[in-house]
Amino acid sequence: MIRILHLLYTEKSIIGRLYCYFSSYFETFSAPTAETLFLLILSVITLESADSIRFLYKHFLSKITEKSLNAFYYACSYAKADYSGFMTVTARIALGLIPECLISQPIFLCIDDTLVPKFGKKFEDVAKLFDHAAHGGSNYLNGHCFVSLMLCVPVWNKDRNKISYLAIPLGYRMWQKGKSKLVLASEMMDDVMPVFGKKQIIMLCDSWYAKENLLKLVDQYSNLDVICSARSDSVLYDLAPEPTGKRGRPAKHGKRLCLSTDFELSEEKIGDYYTGVRKVLTNIFREREVLAYVTTADRKPETMRLFFSTIFPHQLSLFCAWQEEELLNQTGSSLMQYIPLFLYRFRWKIEISYYEQKTFWSLCNYMVRSRKGIEMMINLINVAYCAMKLLPVKEAAFNKYRSYSVQEFRFVLSEQIREQVFFASFVETLEINIKSHAIIGRLEQWVLRHHVFTQKL
User: Fold this and answer.
1) What are the structural domains, with CATH classification, of the chain?
2) What is the DSSP letter of 45?
């Protein structure tokens, strides 16, 4: 596979351990394709920037493999490789990290989308997209939109003796004209739901995804519930009145409710907001009774926000006292009714993931033109990012890095990979040619790199 594989690939070496970990993603691929994609992931971890496949090849791949640059482009865009399976592999690995004592705790799936600006127009499916954040001063940008799915699993935080939720982005799908983002999100949910078996799953999404096309999944999967924000002008009804025994069809629902007058807000702020809750009926959930939460920072009607929950507090098997989340572990009997609203805060983890991947993992810097190539590259970067979160928990050899950030752990692995490649190349040079200038050249590279690294520290 690699020119110096016999020196790099050992069971106890860093590259050998990474190869064993990532091989589960490529079990259905042909051997050449699996080898090429693993090398791409290895280069993403090793280099601080993944601006393009050409950049990865020039600064790392060309030094350890005899594969051509075109081989890497071909593996991304044309090889018979289905990246949709990456989500289920990552989900299985994450589920394996849940300790036995936390097996009954709920699992969260967060759905959202993110925009990636592109300056060229030759990328497939590039379009003019509405940017609600207006990062560039305009409400529109030229680029791609990706729908993503994130999994949050409970793990035990030994440092704080609390339950923390590890957030793992499962994958990305590119939006294209003629196919709604709601359809993409539903397809991604259908792909991963069989992995969870009968575990209690709670889907978290913002108001854009709070539509019947996606929320109908709650009726398809008995172990799935949803907690979502909703438009403040959503139509709400009181519960259907008890039958009167009189002739005629009984009422399907009660009177129409108003956020400002029909919700009794708490006397004191819960967290940062005054909060009210009641059971309601609403069109997007049809005949299902749901909890509606109203929050406001100043009790003004124009600042009120609305949230829905299909799960009720008594249906949650949640160890509140042991939660790392502050609002959850302080929940007493008077606040139990607000637990579903507090759980919605986990959705913010997907925004943190977007920030990290765009800032430190070159998620926006792909230079592949084809749709398949773009999605493959984006998901390979995501797989590498997930590994930096999963390996410290999964592998005993990396447990000491559990308190490290994703970027810090990546830097540690990068240094070890570079050292391993250097010494393997050094030994290979000795085996092939014992000339002194080759040895001196390798030693000069090693000294120079470590001198620069020491200066940075």
Assistant:
1) 85-356 (3.90.350)
2) H
One digit per residue, the tens of pLDDT, for the chain of length 457 reads 444 444 455 666 788 889 889 999 999 899 899 999 999 999 999 998 888 899 999 999 988 888 999 999 999 998 888 888 999 999 999 999 999 999 999 999 999 999 998 887 889 888 888 877 766 667 788 889 999 999 999 999 887 889 999 999 999 999 998 889 999 999 999 999 999 999 999 999 999 999 988 999 999 999 999 999 999 999 999 998 887 777 778 888 889 999 999 999 998 888 889 999 999 999 999 889 999 999 999 989 899 999 999 999 999 888 887 888 877 877 666 788 899 999 999 999 999 999 999 999 988 888 888 999 999 999 999 999 999 999 999 988 898 998 899 999 999 999 988 888 877 666 555 555 555 566 556 655 655 555 444 344 3
Amino acid at 401: Y
Which contacts (CB < 8 Å, 24+ apart) does range 296-304 have?
A: 296/265, 297/272, 297/273, 299/265, 299/274, 301/259, 301/260, 304/232, 304/259, 304/260
| Interatomic CA distance for residues 110 and 227, integer angstroms | 10
The two structure tokens encoding residue 410 = 């990546």
Nearest to 291 by CA among 339, 347, 219, 348: 339
The pTM of the whole model exceeds 0.70: yes
Asked whether 443 and 422 are in contact (CB, 8 A), the reply is no
Q: What is the sign of the dihedral through the CA atoms of 403, 344, 85 and 73?
A: negative
444/440 Cα distance (integer angstroms): 6
Q: What's the rounded Cα separation, in Å, for the pair 354 and 147? A: 11
* Owner of token pair 């929050």: 295
φ/ψ (deg, to 5) at 244? -90, -15
DSSP E strand boundaries for 61-214: 107-117, 127-130, 140-157, 162-174, 201-205
